[in-house]
């Protein structure tokens, strides 16, 4: 039972790190190491187990092969999405375009002699 659990953890942690957001990868790595420490404390040392190293190598190899094939979900599929052109502001297209910033147009306008004229 412990060998199957150890294999699943060793195979799954690289995938969890790979599929997580870039800012969350260090956290996922710490969680994966924590799981291995808990397994090592309560059951057996995972570093001395051959099944751990086989699972880790298979997990990393599957990530490399899937990346080469282009079938990895997560960040790789986000990077391949077609990019849309930025949305243009329709502010200048309005017929009633006011060059004054909002909130100042109703205060009046300054003339050359710096008097305020309501209008």
Main sheet: which strands, in order across?
Answer: 1-2
- As a percent range, the share of strand residues is under 5%
Helix count, DSSP H or I runs of 4 or more residues: 4
State the end-to-end CA separation. 84 Å
Structural class, by secondary structure, is: mainly alpha
Instruction: Let me know the number of strands.
Output: 2
Task: Provide the residue-averaged pLDDT.
Answer: 77
What gyration radius follows from the Cα positions, in whole Å?
30 Å
- Amount of helix: 40-55%
Low-confidence stretches: none
Provide the succession of SSEs.
Answer: HHHHEE
The largest sheet, given as strand count, sense and whether it forms a barrel, is:
2 strands, antiparallel
> What is the overall silhouette?
elongated
Question: What does this 3D model show about the protein?
Answer:
The chain is mainly alpha-helical and 119 residues long. The chain has a domain at 1-51. It is built from 4 helices and 2 strands; from the N terminus they run ααααββ. The protein has helices at residues 2-19, 25-42, 50-69, 75-79, and strands spanning 109-110, 116-117. Strands 1-2 form a two-stranded antiparallel sheet. A hairpin with a 5-residue loop joins β1 (109-110) and β2 (116-117). α1 runs antiparallel to α2 (25-42) and α1 runs parallel beside α3 (50-69). The radius of gyration is 30 Å and the shape is elongated. The chain starts with a helix and ends with a strand.
């Amino acid at each position: 039972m412990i060998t199957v659990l150890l294999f699943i953890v060793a195979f799954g942690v690289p995938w969890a790190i790979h599929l997580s957001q870039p800012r969350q990868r260090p956290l996922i790595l710490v969680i994966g190491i924590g799981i291995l420490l808990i397994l090592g404390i309560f059951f057996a040392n995972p570093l001395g187990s051959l099944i751990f190293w086989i699972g880790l190598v298979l997990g990393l190899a599957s990530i490399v092969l899937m990346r080469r094939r282009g079938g990895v979900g997560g960040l790789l599929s986000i990077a391949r999405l077609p990019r849309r052109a930025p949305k243009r502001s329709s502010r200048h297209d309005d017929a009633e375009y006011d060059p004054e910033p909002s909130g100042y147009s109703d205060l009046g306008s300054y003339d050359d002699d710096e008097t305020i004229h309501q209008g």
